[in-house]
Amino acid sequence: MDIFKRQNIVECAVRFQSDLDCKKYLSEVKWASGYNCRKSGHQGSQIRKDFSRTCNKCSDTESPGAGTLFHKVKFGLLKAFHTCFEMTTTTKGMLVLQVGRRYGIRPDTTRVFMHIVREAMKSSGNYPLDGEVHVDEFVVGGKESERPGRSYGGKKKKVVCAIQLTKEGKVKRFYGLQIKDFSAKSLRPIFERHIAKDAKVTTDEWKGYRPIAKDFYITQIPSEFGLNFKALHTAIHQVKSWIRTTFSWVSKPHFDRYLSEYSFRLNRSQIKPGIFHNLIGRMVNSDKIYINNLV
Ligand SMILES: [Zn+2]
To answer: Which residues, 6+ apart, have CB-to-CB distance to 283 below 8 Å?
Structure first.
């Protein structure tokens, strides 16, 4: 198939001009390794004008969008593709209102679709951070006047995050998870999900990391007001300012999705050309449960 790798919105508009163009693309992604009837398992099919496939054995007709996260998108595939394009290629993502206005979609409908996209952006957990990894926590939201440190509750959302460093000490990849407190039990999932067992992990001296050090290679050093974790703190600053400027209010249940969106773009910033196609692949192959989880 002709994979769309462009970063330019005009080229996107030229390549995808109609719902049919998008259906063609979806069909190529969906049946990349051949057709298999969803009812009979038969492999022979007729391709219809709208790129649906009709099984030669049982006559079941399946549209390219069926069983994917594009299924039943109310405003059509063309707008959905363009929203995906913008969410992957703009540095800071898009606001619901911007997308809604640009494509003439109602804000509620836009919001749901963008959450579906974020769900598709969620890490598979198949590529844990390795090499040199730094871990820390931060808080967002609530009143800035709430006292600093790890002791407060209140309205702030707590996040644990991890970065993998490049040889030059810059951020290579980033993952974040919302946590309910800073206990070892809450901190552990980011290790289990996103950090390789043999990664060389560094944290500050917070006691919550000590129990985890039994299973991971963790060195604890003083933070020195963040000086020992410069790249990580720059990343944290960027996430916080992205959230603060892009979303004036982020509800707790959706918060992990925003973190997924952030990681998805940042972790692919070196491989930009594949990012849109990667997302379409995830939208096609994601489990439908996602949609049920959303509503
Ligand atoms: Zn069949």
So the answer is: 68, 69, 70, 84, 116, 117, 120
User: Is residue 198 a contact partner of residue 130, using CB atoms and an 8 Å limit?
Assistant: yes
The class (CATH top level) of 132-250 is: alpha beta
Distance between Cα 48 and ligand 1 center (Å): 15
Strands 53-55 and 45-47: antiparallel
Is residue 293 within 8 Å of 119, Cβ to Cβ? Answer: yes
Among residues 173, 138, 141, 133, the alpha carbon closest in space to that of 159 is found at: 138
Residue 62 CA to ligand 1 center (angstroms) comes to 10
**Ligand 1 center to 68 CA (angstroms):** 19
Q: 52 C-alpha vs ligand 1 centroid, how far in Å? A: 13
% pLDDT > 90, the chain: 65
CA atoms within 13 Å, Cβ hemisphere of 146? 15
Task: Domain ranges for the chain, please list them.
Answer: 9-121+271-294, 132-250
88 in Cβ contact with 271 (< 8 Å): no
CA atoms within 13 A on the CB side of 217: 12
Is the pLDDT at 32 greater than 70? The verdict is yes
Q: Which two tokens stand for residue 161?
A: 């995050």
Name the range with the highest mean pLDDT among 49-53, 88-92, 249-253: 49-53
Ligand 1 centre distance from Cα of residue 26 (Å): 20
- Specify the DSSP element, H or E, that contains 28: helix 19-30
Q: What is the mean pLDDT of residues 258-279?
A: 88
Residue 47 Cα to ligand 1 midpoint, Å, equals 13
Task: Give the residue carrying structure tokens 């804000």.
Answer: 107
How many A from CA of 21 to the centre of ligand 1?
Answer: 25
- Amino acid 97: pLDDT: 85
Encoded tokens for 117: 């996209």
